[in-house]
Design brief:
This protein is an all-beta fold. The chain has strands at residues 2-3, 7-8, 13-14, 18-19, 24-25, 29-30, 35-36, 40-41, 46-47, 51-53, 58-59, 63-64, 69-70, 73-75, 80-81, 85-86, 91-92, 96-97, 102-103, 107-108, 113-114, 118-119, 124-125, 129-130, 135-136, 140-141, 146-147, 151-152, 157-158, 162-163, 168-169, 173-174. An 8-stranded parallel beta sheet has the order 1-5-9-13-17-21-25-29, with no helix packed on it. The protein has an 8-stranded parallel beta sheet with strand order 2-6-10-14-18-22-26-30, with no helix packed on it. Strands 3-7-11-15-19-23-27-31 form an 8-stranded parallel beta sheet, with no helix packed on it. The mean pLDDT is 96.
Length: 180
């Protein structure tokens, strides 16, 4: 499926599984303050417009963005993800914001590629956070971030300035073969 124009789902309420798998958004896609009561499936979706906005969105069910491509700026700032969030093998080309995002379930960013600024400042990871084999080409900010459980940064490439000031690691921190 394809949205040749803008996809505006601001304040939408999805009572059932929301299936956007493999959907192409040609212009902007906005889900500002939307609520997903069941699983939100965006696997292999492609966001090509000016921005992709998931700010203040509430995901009650699982979140699946694995294999997606954000070719525009993307924000999940102030979002609430109550179950597992699967972002593995996702590509963020023009920056991503997870500022003050609350991950209640496991957050998986393994094998993801962050080409521009990546902001995880003041995010809360309440379950395991997995970043193994991810590449951060641009600056990354984890300042004031709370990791309540284990964090896996094995084989991660931090190729630009990385700010983890005042980050709190309450579980085990793995950084085997990580490049900073």
């Amino acid at each position: 499926s394809r949205f040749p124009d803008s996809g505006n789902f601001d304040f939408a309420y999805f009572n059932n599984v929301a299936d956007f798998e493999s959907v192409w958004f040609d212009k902007f896609a906005t889900f500002y303050n939307a609520t997903f009561m069941k699983d939100a499936q965006f696997a292999f979706a492609e966001f090509n417009g000016a921005y992709a906005n998931f700010e203040s969105t509430c995901f009650i069910g699982g979140v699946f963005f694995y294999g997606s491509q954000f070719n525009s700026y993307c924000t999940f700032s102030d979002a609430l993800l109550q179950k597992n969030a699967d972002f593995h093998a996702t590509k963020y080309s023009n920056g991503v914001g997870f500022f003050r995002t609350n991950f209640s379930g496991q957050a998986n960013f393994a094998r993801s590629r962050f080409i521009a600024d990546s902001i995880f400042s003041q995010a809360n990871f309440n379950d395991m956070a997995i970043f193994s084999n991810a590449n951060f080409d641009g600056p990354v900010f984890f300042n004031d971030t709370v990791f309540s459980r284990d964090v896996d940064f094995d084989n991660v490439q931090f190729l630009s300035p990385t700010d983890m000031s005042n980050a709190s690691f309450k579980g085990n921190l793995q950084m085997n073969s990580t490049k900073i």
